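Budget justification, computational time. The allocation requested in the original proposal was used primarily to generate structure tokens for proteins on the priority list. As evidence of use, we reproduce two of the resulting records. The first is shown immediately below.
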Amino acid sequence: MPTEASFDIVSQFDKQELVNALDQTRRELRTRFDFKDSPFEITLEEQQITILTESEMKLTAIKDVILSKLVRRQLPLKILRWGAPEDAAGGRYRQAVSLVRGLPADFSRQLTKYIRDRHQRVKVTIQGDAIRVTGRSRDDLQAVIHDLRSHEADYDIALQFVNYR
């Protein structure tokens, strides 16, 4: 049995689930009456989603459908950063949605400081875009996870706890 237990704090999502959610969104919008004879595009790139349609009202409707499909597929809504709607060619509107993956360096430093101040019995290290928390007792690690989950609404980033061993 190992003398120390550990887990990693990451911010990631299942890209295939996101692809499936966007496909469901496209299918639903094609059958809706308010989108009949109304062209729209939802394209997924590596780091962003681009929505293109003919009015801001339809942008809002597409956003609502995307959010509902993400919730059904158990994807956190914090993975999306909605940009401002902008005018596109032909009197259309475009909105870029950035995908958030990984922990930024400044957020990682703040989070490690928070954990060190509140839980002295664990060690915290930053490893790239993840944070490793180690400790002698699994109870201490579970206390850290419970503490972070109870303050999850304070963070702009979706946190997952993986590699618990």
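The second record produced under the same allocation is shown here.
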Amino acid sequence: MTRKQPSPFLQQDDAIFIAGHRGMVGSAICRQLHSEGFTGAITCSRNELDLTDQRAVTEFFGRRHLDAIVLAAAKVGGIQANNTMPADFIYQNLMIQSNVIHAAFQTGVHRLLFLGSSCIYPKHAAQPMTEEMLLSGYLEPSNEAYAVAKIAGIKLCESYNRQYGTDYRAVMPTNLYGPQDNFDLENSHVLPALIRKYHLARLAVERDWDGIVKDEAVFGPIPKDTRAHLSACCKSDSHQRQAPSSAVVRLWGSGTPRREFLHVDDLSAACLTIMGLPLEQYRALCASRPDQPSVGAASGKHDPLPTVSHLNVGTGKDVTIMDLAHIVKSIVGYHGEETWDQSRPDGTPRKLLDVSRLKQTGWEPRIEIKHGIRDTYTWYRRQTE
């Protein structure tokens, strides 16, 4: 079979493999492709293709004759998961990235989009963080293993582009949320954990033990201490409208760190915007300075502008974890109290991305955080109806 010559940007009939299509990011990109009329999306379940198996990945790509790849597959989790399973995070992510990127090159796939994470930046980086801050300082220890793997993915893309002239692009999203998120109470990120904790507390105040059982069946185990609090609330005086004096909702850390949140549908739109840029325009964007309003490479007598190898994707706005908790609490409709467990780690004090490069393309986030959380909570509740 004769392969098509790679075009400088996506075509609607391109064969595009979405690695990790069942996850929050991959499923959003699949929806975005469908909504924009792309007809060649290819997906494969983990049971059908183990991305940590180099031979299997290379053989799969060779049979499919792909035009482009979106690498959204990854082992992900919150502070607790990263802190307790560093070997799993660094090994699995390194293997997935290395196998997919190398197999893409081996089988002649010219275009690839790699999705990283804002945790690649130093713990005490100046805010907001520009792309140039990569490798400029020490990482946050609690998620260092995951961050190192993601940095390696960026450098893999950069190195294949330099040596072989491929068009492998990388985006670094801020904290994401939305449908298909992971709501595990021990290993999820902060926003889905808040949604679930407040929802379970609301069910307990309403003495809806059947609802709690359904929630556990869909979203995973409830830790014993949390379960005990929920049970105590469900068994309290039937005339009591509020939670008992011992708070049902226990939140991690101090609540003071600031985080930026982006709805996954906004990310998927940004990914297609970036993939749709002609190569020359994408390179000029990477070579531009964050504080410059126009896109373009250096010219004339000036020194060449520094070229970065990835683009930030975020909103450019952040919120404290405590304020975020109050937003979620209001949307869920829980009226009880909460306590903050400061024995739990806070992580990086602040993570705010500079997204001025991406905004030069005309992309802007559309989903305001309160609307996005309300939409996510609606999706969450529907899973147990």
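A brief technical remark on that second record: The chain is about 40% helix and 10% strand.
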